[in-house]
Amino acid sequence: MVAGVLLLVAAASIGWGAADHSHPLAGPVQAATPTTAPRAPTPTAPAVPVVAHSTPVSLRVPAIALSVSLSTLGLNPDGSVEVPDNDTEPGWFRLGPSPGQIGSAVILGHVDTYQGPGIFFQLRTLLDGDQVQVTLADGAVTTFAVTNVVQYTKTAFPADLVYQSQGRSELQLVTCGGAFDEATGHYLSNIVVYTSFVSATAPTTPPPPPLPTPSDPGPPATVQI
């Protein structure tokens, strides 16, 4: 389903709350070639067992003393990606995998407002090896390690690299950065922190039982955005 969404949405900018003086963040609608070098190719490792799908509820990044709850994000009516409606709480893109599953989980947050620093203001200072922990609704804690921090112009945001599965469990953190355009009130670039899966604790609550399979499932359901 996610791959279908990525193919349907067109390249466009996304933003939120101009009245709140916030800055647009990048979503999978912004596909282009990066202007700065992406991560160096690494040998493809075999898929490892990962956690069950569960909504992420909190994010912790010890290196920048960050500990915060998470909201969930989907798509706007025009097909662009939603972004957090305030600068103090990041959001998980719910149409992708949850952190710890195979694929690219994505969390977006604002760098600042006219009132001061936002929740992801220090994201650009992270270094390779710094840990990122996400607690899921079922109680499991997933741990990731930073592998790279890259700045892309918003016109060259690598949506496929950030949002689509690379065959392994990853978590990407996205915010704004680079030069600030006084005329538009927006940053011209995005900062992406790439991380890879390290470990996960066992859930503290059992998963819900599977739904019974009907003998005649009928036509596929239509997803309402």
Present the secondary structure layout.
Blueprint: H1 2-8, E1 56-61, E2 66-69, E3 71-73, E4 91-93, E5 103-108, E6 112-113, E7 116-117, E8 131-136, E9 141-153, H2 159-163, E10 169-181, E11 186-200
Parallel strand pairs: 3-4, 5-10
Antiparallel strand pairs: 1-2, 1-8, 4-5, 6-7, 8-9, 9-11, 10-11
CATH architecture of the domain at 53-200: Beta Barrel
Query: Unreliable segments (pLDDT under 50, ≥5 consecutive)?
Result: 1-22, 29-38, 213-225
Q: Mean of residue pLDDT?
A: 78
Structural class: mainly beta
Helicity level: under 10%
Return the string of H and E elements. HEEEEEEEEEHEE
Shape: globular
What would your notes on this structure say?
Helix content is 5%, strand content 32%. It is mainly β and 225 residues long. The chain has a domain at 53-200: Beta Barrel (Sortase, Chain: A), CATH 2.40.260.10. The protein has a 9-stranded mixed sheet with strand order 2-1-8-9-11-10-5-4-3, with no helix packed on it. The longest helix has 7 residues, at 2-8. The protein is globular, with a radius of gyration of 17 Å. Mean pLDDT is 78; it is low at 1-22, 29-38 and 213-225.
